[in-house]
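Key idea: predict the complex, not the pieces.
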Amino acid sequence: MRTPDLLSFALRSLGGARTRTLLMLLAMSIGVASVVLLTALGEGARRYVVGEFAQLGTHLLIMLPGRSETTGGAPPLLGATPRDLTLDDAMALLRERSILRVAPLTVGNAPVSYGSREREVTVIGATADFFPIRHLTIGSGSSLPALDPGRGASVVVIGSGLRRELFGSQRALGQWVRIDDRRFRVIGILGEGGESLGQDLDDMAVIPVASAQVVFDTPSLFRVLIQARSEDDIERAKKAAREIIRERHDGEDDVTIISQDALLSTFDRILGALTYTVGGIAAISLAVAGILIMNVMLVAVSQRVAEIGLLKALGAPERQVLRLFLVESVMLAAAGAALGVLIAVAGIFVLREVFPTFPIAAPLWATPAAVGVAIVTGLVFGVLPARRAARLDPVHALSGR
Amino acid sequence: MIELTGIERDFAVGDETVHALSQVSLSLPDGDYVSVMGPSGSGKSTLLNVLGLLDRPNAGSYRLDGVETTDLPEERRAALRRNHIGFVFQAFHLVPRLSAADNIGLPMVLAGVAPDARKARVHEVLDSLDLLDRAHHRPDQLSGGQRQRVAIGRAIVMKPGVLLADEPTGNLDQHAGGEVVGLLERLNGARITLIVVTHDPAIGRRARRRIRMVDGRIESDESGDAHT
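Result:
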């Protein structure tokens, strides 16, 4: 039997039982659509988190004073560390070739006031490099001046939210605000950056790190952001940074360095696994659809006993009858899968329209995998009915009129 | 040429064994016209199934054009059916979703004949059956006589040497039945071997050779002028 004839024969028998065919298509397409849609949601969540981390900065290492992996001694991250992490420590890191930028940070809460308005916000002491490392943009005015980090300056860059709260519709650039009894001139406003890992960037003030150390009266840094030159340099930068600090701290290994990419890849793995899991759960509905196909094909075989007998009388061998029925169930599965993909694409489109910030997208593997599983399901669950048809005794099949 | 020698066919019904055919020997030259008659359960349908290679005898020899068929694998028997035997059934057994032309072309589709050759042959058959204007009608749009004519067309489309008809007029009225028998006889006139199983003595009598079966045996086998 020629392949086009085989296909058109199967197509016609499917067309001959329209309700049944449509119901099957529906079942199969729901299965495929749910696999694609659910994995798209999982992938969206992954992309969302990865995106959030990317906003934090790329190739980022974070150095904290104190050791989190100590063997005995003081509990990590709490109070007493043998040595402060100082500005000089931070700037010494730039010696290392694999390190592109360094941003020493001092962070605290302080009241910021203009006239009679006052707001308690997060004040970050940083250097000019802080902005490119954290991917912060300046909406208007300028960034912090690239001074010697050891020198303070009475200038401040404020978030756009803070600007609104303090100045309302008035002009903010060039005005003097008071931070904890010291006066700073507003030289820049951050762009509307929104949020980064839950921290509201709109509501903060950035001043030179030396000035912040005076305001908060602390010689130690809160942390140092280190940006490696490239992905491959991250490990080297981490090792070198640790080495430099050890050298400067009399051989004491008293800082903790967190690699952001390590954190990110952990999240990436967790959410990736979640996507697979959700996809797997949805695949169960494909198996259910497969069983439905088997059921429907079994009914079709018993309804078409006479036709099968006829085909055999006309000289169709068992193999041919088997193939005819297998092709039918695979066609059902494939058409259902195609429909399912369409439904999923439409669903993703709608979700994108409704939640424009959520980066929903089906992972590349999801669609071919769902379609593949659907077709294999059709094949596997089609075997039993097809074999039943192929083994029918033509004498009995024809006499049952 | 059909040669049956010592054919046995038993069925187990519960604990009993029913001898549907016992010691049936028969030789039919090409172009013969045979009617098989007998009461229900006499084995005439089983004989037809054995002749049509749909059923395998328990013992005996069946040679079709010199080929021993009883020990052939199913695949080969299917091929013989396809190329050498045409079936006409009482219930027509047309595929309801296919047009008359497609029903007639079905054996060629199964045999893998190319569409062009198929089309030409189907046209030829439709023409000879006087069914050209019904080519695109589905079976439910045809009368009983037309349906049986389509079924006959399907049986002869592969140009078989043997035509097996099982009560071909059983579902038809007198007029349509007469037409169908006339058509079958015309085909027999063109050297096709025609074997008709029937209850109807009027039709049975028309055959040149009349076989009567009782209890799985050939009771009588007469040849001669049909109208004595």
